[in-house]
Design goal:
Blueprint: E1 2-7, E2 10-15, E3 23-24, E4 31-40, E5 48-50, H1 55-58, E6 61-63, E7 79-82, E8 87-88, E9 96-101, E10 104-106, E11 109-113, E12 117-122, E13 128-134, E14 137-144, E15 150-154, E16 159-165, E17 172-178, E18 183-185, E19 191-197, E20 200-208, E21 212-220, E22 225-233
Parallel strand pairs: 3-8, 4-22, 9-12, 11-17
Antiparallel strand pairs: 1-2, 4-19, 5-6, 7-18, 7-20, 9-10, 12-15, 13-14, 13-16, 16-17, 20-21
């Protein structure tokens, strides 16, 4: 689409600015993208957090979960997604969930698509205040003073968001919301899978809170599985 502005007899042509649109379609002969995210070289060790309050329920220390790695270097909690895609499978109808469990966010890294509902839960027997930021600006700020309490809201923002607790300063997690549903996290061995992808060539991005970002171009064939490997060298 072109916008035309006529100023003092001079024709100026400028491109219209739009967000990336995503159309939900019935995917015929869709393909699967699977793979594994690893780290090699100087493999880091996870940190330990010292718990400064509510130790009777949460214990004296907790893993930071900054580096959750298998014995073979598989990276858990890496986010894998198709960066731009015009049309594909339907957006998820189920909500995205984050729970407060023993003074930690479960899961540590959660993902979803723009427009999905977010449910914040409190399983603990004490007050949590879940505060979610995007670019240091508040997206949500939920007080959950009662065990079993849930708050549900639609997420209209995209990008990587920091999830924190105003009542427990050490608690930190991440919520990565995307423009399309082709987004997932790696399991404890670093494995991931994205399904029902229309055949084509796409830019795949991998994000990890400590290891950073990587990207690669991948061609997905219809009706089959395409495999990739991603390695963070240190």
């Amino acid at each position: 689409m072109i916008k035309r502005l006529l100023l003092t007899g001079v024709l100026i042509i400028t491109p219209a600015v739009h967000g990336w649109a995503y159309d939900q379609i019935q995917v015929a002969n869709g393909g699967t993208l699977k793979g594994r995210v690893t780290v090699s070289g100087n493999i880091p060790k996870d940190e330990t957090i010292q718990v400064s309050k509510d130790q009777a329920h949460c214990g004296d220390s907790l893993p930071r979960e900054k580096y959750v790695l298998s014995g073979e270097g598989g990276v858990k909690n890496a986010v894998v997604f198709i960066e731009e895609i015009k049309a594909g499978k339907a957006l998820p109808s189920t909500p995205v969930e984050i729970d407060n469990v023993k003074c930690a966010f479960v899961p540590h890294v959660q993902v979803g698509a723009k427009g999905q509902d977010l449910i914040i839960k409190n399983t603990d027997p004490m007050l949590h205040n879940t505060h979610i930021y995007l670019d240091k600006k508040t997206v949500f700020n939920f007080a959950l003073p009662v065990t079993g309490m849930e708050i549900r809201k639609p997420v209209k923002k995209t990008g990587v968001m920091s999830v924190e607790c105003d009542a427990h300063a050490w608690m930190k997690g991440y919520l990565y919301m995307h423009e399309n549903p082709y987004i997932t996290t790696t399991d404890k061995n670093g494995n991931f899978s994205l399904t029902d992808i229309p055949p084509g060539t796409y830019k795949i991005k991998i994000w990890h809170e400590a290891l950073g970002e990587q990207g690669q171009s991948v061609t997905v064939s219809g009706g089959g599985a395409t495999e990739i490997k991603v390695d963070y060298k240190r």
